[in-house]
Amino acid sequence: MSQHPAPSSPAPAMSEVHEFKREMSLFDAMMIVMGAMIGSGIFIVSADIARTVGSPGLLLLVWLVTGILTVIGALSYGELAGMMPHAGGLYVYLREAYNPLIGFLYGWTTFLVIQTGTIAAVAVAFAKFTGLIIPWFNEHNILVTVLGLKISTAHVLAIDSIAVLTYLNMRGLRTGKTIQGIFTVTKTAVLSGLILLGFVVGANAAAIKANLAVFWKASWTHMANGQTASVQSLSGLMVLAAIGAAMVGSLFASDEWYTVTYIAGEVKNPKRNIPLSLVLGAGVVILLYFLANVAYVVTLPVHGSPGAAAVMGRGIQFAAADRVGTAAASVIFGAPAAIIMAALIMISTFGCNNGLILSGARVYYAMAKDGLFFKATGKLNRKSVPGTALVVQGIWASLLCLSGTYSDLLDYVVFAVLIFFVLVVSGIFILRKKKPDAERPYRAWGYPVVPALYIVVAAAIAVDLLVFKAKYTFPGLIIVLLGIPVFFLRKRIAKRLS
After folding, report:
1. The whole model's pTM is what?
2. Which domains does the chain have, with CATH numbers?
């Protein structure tokens, strides 16, 4: 009787046998950092900053302080990234430095507000600027009203852009990183070109003279219904308060540099390449941002009037729809400026959201592996990416697109981020004592003085926002705190089911 091999047992589900693939080079990691940072903020937020500080010198100072804070953060995060080169990034760092509860609160807030809120805000900006080229995509073009919620063509486009990028990233890391590289190189080159043209073509004596006359003269312009309600002269501590409040915009525009830590499990030689990508990527973008604002200041006067018809009359403070980049471009290119800038921002925001969508899902994957998020999000699809986590993230971000305006989401995100920035950098001090013998391929530059300075400044800005932006920051704080009962409830349910 012939012997036949016993039939092999069924292969385990593909989502269970696939592992992350280390396909990201240093260049790819830098593209994630730079691409996630450069969205639409640099072309918009300087208007609100200029209204808040009222001075060309202070406008540049806000961006300088933001740049220093960001680079110090990148230098500090590098130590943690080298120690723990695993998928999940900041979630892992907080879990190891403190406890699973703190890690969960970061993941919880990242899902509800930080990552998905930023994705939504960037998608809304993408739709808003697409509408300048294709007017049908307009927030006033209402398609349907559901339970009192008006859904416009702009909302639909924002959600569609999230859906397309989610689908593309479900097709594998190679697809996601290719898209990221193409869009990041393109928008970096174009932004650099615009800065150069701003200095060479856009610079004009009238704007420079007007700005030098009030270079350090601080004032806070308060708005009501699109009109100037009052102009408050600033001195002493109120100048510092205004700078802190103004940094909401610059911090948002400079945010998400740390998302590369989320994909550490897919980066080649992560102990070297993650810290390097953080410092190099963030450093390049911050330099571009500062130079862009110098270009704005030599091209346009900071002060202006909301009722003025001409670009120069409106100034940076009252650029139409806060589109400072478009206003500066109009001085350079004339009439075609609006279309040129709209196309640039469409490229910029689409590429930005690709990086955010790609990286964010890895946080929920890491949480699920610890039993702190939906179990299905802790599995990889046949392309070795967390497909279910990508879908869940996309659905929630799409709902947030309908929840508020760009500026609402902006304010909401920044405060929640600052809370965890302080905790993460504080974690460096904790882990130095808790795990003194752990391998540290890179050590935080200037330790302990520089990381401590970062903690103090970030905490001060957070407190400042609680006082002057309470309408949006308190809800953000409440969301963080609501994660506490959710954590313990989930833990109790898991214990009963075990």
Report:
1. 0.89
2. 21-493 (1.20.1740.10)
